[in-house]
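Ticket #4471: structure export looks truncated?
Reporter: QA, pipeline team
Priority: medium

Steps to reproduce: submit the single chain below to the structure queue and open the exported record.
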Amino acid sequence: MPSGVYRVDQVRAAEEKLMRTVPAAELMQRAARGLLNVCVDIITTRGRVAGANVVALIGSGNNGGDALWAVAGLATRGATVVAVGVGPTMHREGAAALLAAGGNIIDAHDGAAEVDLAGTDLVVDGITGIGGRGALRGPALIWVRAAAASGAMIVAVDVPSGVDADTGAIEDLQACVEADVTVTFGVQKPGLLVAPGNGVAGHIVVVDIGLDAVLPPPQIQVLDEVDFGSWLTGPAHGDYKYSRGVVGVAAGSPRYRGAAFLATAGARYGTSGMTRFLDRGDGIAAAVVEQFWDVVSAESTGDPRVSSWVIGPGLGTDEAAAALLAGVLGEHVPVVLDADALRILDPCRARVHERFSAGHLTILTPHEGEFVGLGYQDAQLAEDRIGLVQRAAADLSAIVVLKGPGTIIAEPGGGVIIDTVGGPELGTAGSGDVLTGLMGSLLARTSAPYLQTGRNLPMSMVMEVVGTAVGVHGLAGRLAAKGQVPITAQDIARQLPDAIAELRK
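Actual output as written to the record:
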C-alpha cells in the first residue's frame, strides 16, 4: 500500500497525542537512536567510528536535542565530536550527555567569519528541523558553507535546514543545507519529496517513533515500486484484445509527426489489448500503422470499442484540433490530456466539469510551462507546489499530474500521490508523449470491465493507475540511463516492457 506523507501540523498533533502515553524524553530517545544508527552506518562505509571526526550543527529546537543525543552515542564509540551551537540556546540534557561522553561544545557566535572543516568525516545538521522557515543566516550559514566545502557526508535531522518541510520551498539555494542523507522521524514530510526540497534531501530514511498509531489516514501518499505490480498484471485466461481494453490515440500532425509515434509507442507497451490511432486524413495515421503493424486506425472519436482516449501530443492548436478535443471529451471513458490539448482546453473547461459530475474522469498531464499556461503562476509554484496542484485539480474537476522532479498527482477531492521513482533522465523531448500513451493504455485495461457493465472507475482506482503509469515511466527512464546517457524518448519507450516485467515480480 502507498505510504503516508504528513504536513507539520499533523505531525505536531500526533506527537502531542502520543505524548499522553509516552514521555517526551522517550520520543527524543527513539529519534536519537534511529539517527545514531544511520550515522554509524555512514561512517563505517568510509572507515571506523573510533577516530572519526564529527561536527554537529545545533539549533535551539528539539531537533538539536535529537542530534546531540545521537552524536553523544558516536562519542562513546570513540569518535571525536564537536557540537557547534548556532542558535541562542541548546538542548540542556542533550548537551550534558555529549559532554559526559567526551565530546566538545563551542558557540558559533564566538567564532571567526570563516570556518575550515577539512578532515571532517560527518556533519550532522540539527539547526532548524520541521518548524524552520526561510534561509540560513549569520553563524549558521558560515558553518553550513564550511560543511559543504569540506567533503564530509552531511546528515540532516528531520529536514535539511533552509527547506520548508511542508512545501519544499527554499528561499535561497545558497543558504540551505544540501544533505547526502535526511533522517526524518515518524513519517515522510511533503517538502522532502517535491522540488526544490527533494533536490537537497539526498537519501531519505524514515525512523519509526510510534506515530503510526495516532495519525489520521493520509491525504498525501507516496507510491513505491512495490505498489505498482497489482496494476500491471498480464492477460488472464480467456482474455482477448477487447476484454483487455482499447486505447485510442489522437496525436501528431504534419509538423509534429514524432509525437504521434511516441504516444503510440507508450500505448502499445502498456497493458491494454489494442491501440487504435485516430485517422485525421493528414497521412499521420497511415504512417503510424505502417510503423506499428499491431495498431489499427480509428475513423472517429465515437469508436465504441475504445475504453480510454489520449489526446494532445503534437496535435496542433487550430480549429480542427479544438473540435477534436471537444469530441473526445464527449466520450464516456477516461481521457488523458497532454501538450496541445492543454493549450486549447479553455473552451472545453465546462465539458470537463460536466464529465466529472457524471463520473467520467479527465486526467491533465502538464509540465511546469503548461501548468502556468493553465493559469497557475510560477511564484505560487515556488511557495507551495503541492497545495497549488491540489487547487488546480479542484478548480478543473480533473486529476492533475504536474510532471517534473517529484511528479505530483492530485484529484479534485484533495488526495495527492507523489512519485519518487522518476529521475532527471526523463527531462528529454518527447518523454511526456510516451507517458501519455502509457497512461491511456493502463486506464483502458482497467476501465474495460467497468464500461462493459455501465459503471465508472472509482477515483481511488484511477489515482493508483495514474500513479503506476508515472512510476513505470520513471523506472523505464532509469533502465534506459543505465545503458547510455543522455537518453531519448525512444529509449524510454523501448524500456517500458522491461520496466513492467521488473515491477510484476
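Status: closed, not a bug. The export was complete when the record was re-opened. Leaving a note from the reviewer for reference: The mean pLDDT is 93.
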